[in-house]
């Protein structure tokens, strides 16, 4: 019911906005097949198809169950097969868009502007997976597109800063304009999310292990040594706590303290508290499981690369969207449109009053 309610709210809101803006559709004038407007339209089509794919994959099992036609589950294989191919061209268009003129553009001019960004992104995306120890084609393609978005954003900012003979203060004001900076901040945030998704899907490691105090096990190039088990007391709970030293190539990385907590109100239902060590390019964390025979315990070890980029990208995406939406020029344009309609209505009503008088 929660999923259906959320979908109903989203559909109602989107259809309301569409009905409100429908009279203005098609009033923006014509544009050539290769222009920023055409790229934006292609982006919208790809996003709409991707949303439809997710919508169908979410509701189809519910509909079958509701009509008594059986039970099925739609999981990651479906979304990886349908969603990813739609997102890859979308990412390319996102990087291409800022370099394309409004109304009409020349493809050769765009290629001349972006040829170095394209070359560097191909090289960076091709070499980046090698730093993780294994090369995967889809991962390399995703990293190429993420690098492409970041490089084209930087190139566009550099173009604004270095164009013309205007004073530096004027050029800085152009770059810091909320719509411009918000657009590129959101695009770079999306690129960081793409990097994180590609890396996690390809290189994450998850291992279930059995360890006793003094024992060491390895995962994803890290060594995990269980030093001891101890009992600790919290505000309203007791816990079994493991003290685990994490090293890499003999150098200390972190000391993790995963817990199995027994709350005073429900001691029969223990809660597992994982211990996390976060860095710029990877997260390592350990979850304490059940006690086994003797002093042995079960543990689950996780290695997730570039997760910090995921959260950073999401924040940048949200901030960029808010910045772009807050641009004062949009409010002025809306006010001018209202004034124009009001003036037209006033002029049209004048002669009518003279005839009836």
What can you tell me about this protein's structure?
The protein is an alpha+beta fold. Among the domains are: 31-105; 205-307. The protein contains nine helices and ten strands. The strands form two sheets. Strands 2, 3, 4, 5, 6 and 7 form a six-stranded antiparallel beta sheet that branches. Strands 1-10-9-8 form a four-stranded antiparallel beta sheet. Helix 2 (36-66) packs antiparallel against helix 3, helix 3 (76-96) runs parallel beside helix 5 (137-162) and helix 4 (107-127) crosses helix 5. The protein starts with a helix and ends with a helix.
Main attributes?
alpha+beta; globular; 10 strands; 9 helices; 357 residues; 6-stranded antiparallel beta sheet; 4-stranded antiparallel beta sheet; single chain
Write the layout of secondary structure elements.
Blueprint: H1 2-21, H2 36-66, H3 76-96, H4 107-127, H5 137-162, H6 168-175, H7 178-203, E1 205-211, E2 216-219, E3 222-233, E4 237-248, E5 251-256, E6 259-263, E7 271-273, E8 275-278, E9 282-291, E10 297-305, H8 307-325, H9 328-356
Antiparallel strand pairs: 1-10, 2-3, 3-4, 4-5, 4-6, 6-7, 8-9, 9-10
